[in-house]
Amino acid sequence: MAEETKVSAVKAPQQADPMEASIEVSTQEMIRRAQKLQIETVFDRAVTMKPCAIGMQGICCKNCAMGPCRLPLPKGGVQGDDTRKGLCGATPNTIAARNWIRMIAGGAAAHSDHGRGVALTFLSVARKETKDYTIKDPAKLISIAPYFGVATTVEVDGKKLDRDIDEIALGVAEAAVAEWGKTDGFLSYLKRAPQPLQDKWEKQGVKPRNIDREIVEIMHRTHMGVDQDYKNLLKQGARASIADGWGGSMIGTDLQDVMFGTPAPLQAEANLGVMKADHVNIIVHGHEPLLSEMIVAAAQSQEMIDLAKQNGAKGIQLSGICCTANELLQRHGIPPAGTFLQQELAIITGACDAMVVDVQCIFQNLANVAKCFHTKLITTHPIARMEQENVIHIEFDEHYAMQDAMRIVKMAVENFQNRGAEVMIPQHKTTQIAGFGVESIQYHLGGSFRGSYYTLNDNIINGRIRGIAGVVGCNNARTKHNEEHITIIKELIKNDVIVLTTGCSAIAAGIHGLLTPGAAAVHCGPGLAEVCETVGIPPVLHLGSCVDNSRILLAATEVVKAGGLGNDICDLPAAGSAPEWMSEKAISIGQYFVSSGVYTVFGYSLPLEGAPVVKDYLYKTMEDMYGGMWDCEADPVKHAHKMIAHIDKKRKALGIDKARDRVLMDMADRQKLGME
Ligand code: NFS
């Protein structure tokens, strides 16, 4: 390979201040260690490379070779007519809307291609082409079959009998795979949404036809000289996002549950301190649990444990980064070693014998960092390889899944002996409860009387719980690691808002000790604390990975069904947030929450400032169309209070604002009387 294509891991000219880079102690320690070893990390690069101001405003168009055309907002904003245009005449509105929906296309494609991989693997299971995967949750399979038009019973001699599970599996698998490219009708899962929401989608003309088509159509419409009406462009963005949330992601989540088991609450640890100096440390990183599920089995096999001992280790410690971590956490209690921004740091411990990556959110710089240690960096997916020579590619094939996993684990185990003297694992880890989902919330907070989410609804109506928030998404090196996530979540629960969390936000919440029932007494307002203590749940519920945001959509739908809080998701006292977003997937998620009726606030900055008309459309007009709208607020306390203000607005519209005043007054009175 030519010398100039090699990228150096060596020290940045300027280095990050660890205390400014993260609020998390082990992260600060590892940044310091990296700097001492002269190994550059994302935190240093964020200091040396500033973002492009024009790109940040969303008004740079590079969709053809006459550009890039840059249309920065004049100082002091547009006075009079906005005469800015690109060479072809594209307005700032067209450019910002095109860029926006291309992000949705990227995000929806990533989630949905993950979902497709799961659906295709499930088809192999149904066709009995693989032995390594099975149906672990037949009840879930039976519950989703009707949405795909697959019968779960048969009539024999006038009697209704249960249909053979293998037949149901084949029917569901074929119908699910067809969702990506069917020629007629609309996505099957749309009918899971509350009827008024389905009616809105119909009225707005945004019902997705199939998953792939909506993504491809974005690429077509945003090609030079096609769709030049920002409203029409944004409509297609909404349609593709719905194909993600109520399509690719939801099918992915469901079929993963069918094959690997529906999560149930369990206890685990979190943070870099889960790595063990005397064990082989394997870290799985990325998003798809297809391979990592097999790695769990391989790492727990007696053969590999014995091999680890022969190589001088006490055992094998498996942990995760990003959403692969969340998938393994929620089903097996495998601990997350860190969030997105801690991926390089896990290798800098010097104790990572192998990092196994699949797709999405993987830094190319991992290869440069791995080169400084003995760490084997193993790519496993045909669509996600790295150019650096030290990267090993072991392609994963679902038909030989266990064989591939054993090979990878063996490589890690045999690498244990190559560790250098430079091992430093930060001694920080926490305990957490994870593994919540639609079903387990129902179990913990529900009751069979008057609807399954009755207890939750009752506590919202009586005001103990003020509302529901979804806090999700990434870390972003342009903000202080974990600070926004944690400040926002704490502010919400302090104000009696129960939080559902996924993705790196959920890992952050675990690392900072918010995912335990004990957190309620320390951080919550009196109403939420009382509910959490009575029911024995944390005030922040970990609902899984980013594709599992579909669980939040379904949980919201269950709350609507349970009654007393309006007829649609947009009526609920609820709001969404992605405090430290950075990926295109986050924009797709944000848009499907907005398109499903949720007020959704992003942190950091959205690329809309250069096109105020488009921004206004997303922040205001969308509320009339879908019931939900966008917002952006970088200050975490203000961010949380914008969500709370929206929750209070919805409580007022439902006529339940007085109930909450009463609960709080009762509490104050009781305190005055010394009864607390
Ligand atoms: Ni979501 Fe999960 Fe993390 Fe962001 Fe990346 S891992 S899919 S995109 S960074 S939360």
What does this structure look like?
The protein is of the alpha/beta class. The chain has three domains: 92-260, Substrate Binding Domain Of Dnak, Chain:A, Domain 2 (Up-down Bundle); 272-418, Rossmann fold, CATH 3.40.50.2030; 432-673, Rossmann fold (3-Layer(aba) Sandwich). Helices cover 48% and strands 11% of the residues. The strands form five sheets. It has a six-stranded parallel beta sheet with strand order 8-7-6-9-10-11. A six-stranded parallel beta sheet has the order 15-14-13-16-17-18, with helices on both faces. A hairpin with a 2-residue loop joins strand 3 (153-156) and strand 4 (159-162). Helix 5 (92-126) crosses helix 24 and helix 10 (230-260) crosses helix 24 (584-595). The chain is globular, with a radius of gyration of 25 Å. Residues 287, 322-323, 340, 361, 473-474, 503-504, 545-546, 583, 585-586 line the site of FE(4)-NI(1)-S(5) cluster (NFS).
